[in-house]
Amino acid sequence: LAKTTQPISMDSYEGQEVNITCSHNNIATNDYITWYQQFPSQGPRFIIQGYKTKVTNEVASLFIPADRKSSTLSLPRVSLSDTAVYYCLVGETLYGGSQGNLIFGKGTKLSVKP
Amino acid sequence: GAVVSQHPSRVICKSGTSVKIECRSLDFQATTMFWYRQFPKKSLMLMATSNEGSKATYEQGVEKDKFLINHASLTLSTLTVTSAHPEDSSFYICSAMTSGRGSYNEQFFGPGTRLTVL
Question: Less packed terminus of chain B by CB within 10 Å, N or C?
Fold first, then answer.
């Protein structure tokens, strides 16, 4: 499973756009990229997932360059409630026959200030 | 949809006793469930993977005789911490996955169980 590297922490202010970049130099062809959000004493919550180029949903955008060795989670206009730890994970597709194991890295602790 | 529950949400027990934690997928059938452990201010660590009707696959360093996992149905997996010790105190999180739900292998996580062993 590909290892991921993220900044340990980031600070931002309400209303700003936050971009968190994750490096995954050893990503394999069958790997996809997923981001999760975790609040203290809660289970992780799925944010977004992608394989290449750009993916956007109602809460975030995910930018993946052509070489797929990194990805950037973009949170538009963050609020205080976005203060959490954000994890970037890479994993094989379920349909490729894998068990779907997800290995969590250390994550990025985002602190949003008023 | 895609809700995973855990019970209990927190438990305090005496050293040497056993504690059972339940993980349920409420609105879908989970072919695979995962158990994670998370220490304070640390990341989640995968403990084991369980498929319904078969033995769990444990990650390296996780004692299978201490952390008993049973995935008896497509909606329920249990983790039993046997002969608990204070060092087993942690936040235990389960997740569930099904091939017919979500994209790729999206996992749906439970809210976690806080175990404190005195």
Answer: N
